[in-house]
């Protein structure tokens, strides 16, 4: 049976993963209307990925005799100044998510809940990858600067950056 403290922390994480999914969805929609089709596809796919992170937590809680709480949807930020602004927001958000994951891992040790500790290791690895990907993309965008040709090529190639990241993970 899952302890109340752990249950609360995991349920909060469900909300955070759901919020992440909404944030990526809003970014995808912004990119799509700006004509950045490759970036939009990347961000739509990532919104789906965040939903799977949320579902994984729902299943884990329920399988361990807890009850997952499905939270209300928050409205994410809808407007961005540029693609660089989007990926800066992503990096900051993922750092925030990593801190939340680390807090849960710390709590599992305090509560001697080694099953949840083990389960959370997947999220620890995932966060390393998510932060790495956001930093790599931001570095590229910083290199491109205001160069429209560079941005065109970036938008064409961004989907393969995610594939490359997933295959090396
Ligand atoms: Fe769920 O990894 Fe990003 O937020």
Radius of gyration: 17 Å
Q: Can you summarize the main beta sheet?
A: none
Shape assignment: elongated
Annotated CATH homologous superfamily:
Ferritin, core subunit, four-helix bundle
Distance between the termini: 32 Å
> What CATH architecture do you see?
Up-down Bundle
Q: What does the average pLDDT come to?
A: 94
Topology pattern, helix = H, strand = E:
HHHHH
- Our count of helices gives 5
Structure commentary:
There is one protein chain. With 169 residues, the protein is an all-alpha fold. It has a single domain, classed as Ferritin, CATH 1.20.1260.10. The chain contains five helices and no strands. The chain has helices at residues 4-33, 37-63, 83-110, 114-144, 148-168. Helix 1 packs antiparallel against helix 3. It starts with a helix and ends with a helix. The site of hydroxy diiron-OXO moiety has 8 residues, from helix 1, helix 2, helix 3 and helix 4.
Task: List the keywords.
single chain, mainly alpha, Ferritin, elongated, binds hydroxy diiron-OXO moiety
Write the layout of secondary structure elements.
Elements: H1 4-33, H2 37-63, H3 83-110, H4 114-144, H5 148-168
The chain binds hydroxy diiron-OXO moiety (OFO).
Hydroxy diiron-OXO moiety binds next to helix 1, helix 2, helix 3 and helix 4.
Structure at a glance:
The chain has 169 residues and is mostly helical.
